[in-house]
Amino acid sequence: MAFAARASASEPLAVFEMNADGSACAKNVDISTHASSENGLLVHDFDPAYSPPEADGSVHLVFASTRGNDPNAMLDYSGPQRNPADPTKANANLYAYEPDPAKAGAMRIRQLTYLLDMERAPAFMADGRLVFTAEKREPGFYQLALRRQNLDGGDYHPLFAQRSSIGFHEVSQVVHLADKNFAMVCADPGVPHHGGALAVFNRSMGVDFTSTDPADYPIDPTVLDPSSPSSPEASFFLHSLRFLDPTASGRLHGSTSGLYSSPSPLPNDRVLVSFGQATDSASFEGDYDLYVVDQATGAKTKLLGDPGVAEIDAVAVYARMPRGVYRSTWNDPNAYGINPTDTAVDLVQHDALTIHSLMFQNTPTGRPREQLSGFEVWEELPPTPDVTSFQQGGDFVASDPFGPVYVRRRLLGTVPILADGSAHWRAPGGVPLVLHLLDSPESQAAGFPRWQREQLMFAPGEMKHEAFPYPFFDGFCAMCHDSVSGRPVDAALRPDIFTHASESAAMTAPPTDLALPPSQRGAPVGPPNAP
User: Fold this and answer.
1) % helix / strand / coil in the chain, to the nearest 5?
2) What tens digit of pLDDT does each residue of 276-327 get?
3) Closest CA to 263 of 286, 280, 288, 281
4) Residue 452 pLDDT > 90, yes or no?
5) Gap between the Cα atoms of 368 and 171, Å rounded
6) Confidence (pLDDT) at 471
7) 522 and 411 in contact (C-beta within 8 Å)?
8) Most exposed residue of 22, 131, 424, 500, measured as fewest CB within 10 angstroms of its CB?
């Protein structure tokens, strides 16, 4: 068993391990070799999760940490950094404690994510892929979303709830269930004690949306109008999202029967979860009891719980089929490899136009492929060391309906989009990036947003191919993202994908090289004037 603990609020959280019977409890000293504080911040290690065992019985222990990035010549800052969403706090990324392939019998710590907001609460799918919660905060946008990543660092990919069109701004605590569904907790910002509504989704059925706010659909809000051609046909649209207990709203205010937290899989189709009764979420004091919820009926059965005591973070212990850890291959839709001698990422986007159409709205209603000539790549920077609150951020602080946010960026350069819609570029690895789309006839006519609303990241030395040439998007990616046209009938496999999946102009074109050292990048600028 692994968990995080500390003796007092003045100490950092550390990862402890112990046997299932409670014996041999000790701090993992390899993980805690860093200083207890640096850059004016406590260095926390928390949210540990074991991977499925490898064929030799070894496991990887993934955890969140505020230790900062691994040493990287592509960065001109080091150590723990403050979160642009709240400079009073440190940002956290994910790391793996695992056997060192270069030293028999030794262990190492390897960084998995390289962003400036919060990445936490890792868990594993049955096939050994990693799922977790990612914080996304940019001007005019806030979302706790679910992400998926291969443990070798490949395929950092949206899992679910990337936009508030899902109906909530916070979706977290994701786990993979025995029937291949996922369970998660959905909530408004400010709901206390990590509580919310309990939901399950089937990722293979694609995207879903429940929000009735047109602002959550910046590309095409007509999806909300049942008479609109872009609105899904209600009689045929298969929803991937279900709320198991509609009486538990997940809203900060208004009627509710209670709050759910910390779902966990069971060996059948049921969910082990904590639930606390409440008539108003805002006044809930955290008195959770342990329940089992039936996915089919939504009925919940109480297992245990005492008044005034919180029973949370329960995990069922049972035998599982050992499937090992999933590893990236060049046959994957987002083909991946690592060049250990390089610090930059080399990225081939076989269809940059369709990829970028997913940046602002991902609904099963079709999407415009803009006539883009290119896009800018910007480096997202943390608050400078003297900024410990928004009051000290000066011109780098913007305000929106979610509150203040710190924004400091510098331009790396512009990537041209080739005649067939593909692009090939290099950028610094292990550096948070944000894309800015150049104006197009479509964006000027409809007022589409241009700035990406989340950070990108690539590992140092990463070599990646994203998606497929345009004719094949509907033949594979549309199974989850829906077809470009929005017509379900167009989401169908094309056999030619097996022989032509990598045929694009970007494959043979030299990359636009943006992997410049920090001293050669643009001057930092503050929040943009337009979305």
Assistant:
1) 10, 35, 55
2) 999 999 999 999 999 999 999 999 999 999 999 999 999 998 988 888 898 8
3) 288
4) yes
5) 27
6) 82
7) yes
8) 22
Q: Give every CB contact of residue 283 below 8 A, 6+ residues apart in sequence.
A: none
Question: What does pTM read for this prediction?
Answer: 0.95
Q: Note whether residue 513 is domain-resident.
A: yes
Provide the token pair at 152: 């070798």
Among 455, 430, 515, 463, which residue's Cα sits nearest to residue 70?
Answer: 430
Residue 372 carries which side chain, given as an amino acid letter? L
| Radius of gyration of the CA atoms of the chain, in A | 23
Question: 237 burial class (0-12, 13-18, 19+ CB within 10 angstroms)?
Answer: middle
Asked if 357 and 367 count as a contact pair (C-beta separation under 8 A), the reply is yes
Same domain, 298 and 416: no
pLDDT in tens, 32-43: 999 999 999 999
Q: Taking the CB of residue 471, how many other CB atoms lie within 10 A of it?
A: 13
CA separation for the pair 193, 259 (Å, rounded): 9
Token couple for 389? 């609150």
Using CA atoms, how far apart are residues 467 and 481, in angstroms rounded to an integer?
12
Nearest one of 56, 5, 57 to 26, comparing CA atoms: 5
Contact 231, 271 (CB under 8 A): no
299 with 234, same domain: the answer is yes
356 and 316 inside one domain: no
Name the token pair of 104. Answer: 């028999």
Token pair listed for 264: 């966990």
d(CA 154, CA 462) in angstroms, rounded, equals 8
Tell whether 345 is covered by a domain: yes
Decide if 129 is inside a domain.
no
Residues 308 and 170 both lie in one domain: yes
Structure tokens at 32: 């805690």
Residue 282 falls inside a structural domain: yes
Range of the domain at 341: 336-520
Residues sharing a CB contact under 8 Å with residue 92, sequence separation 6 or more, in sequence order: 44, 46, 64, 65, 66, 118, 119, 120
At residue 337, the pLDDT reads 86
Residues in the chain: 531
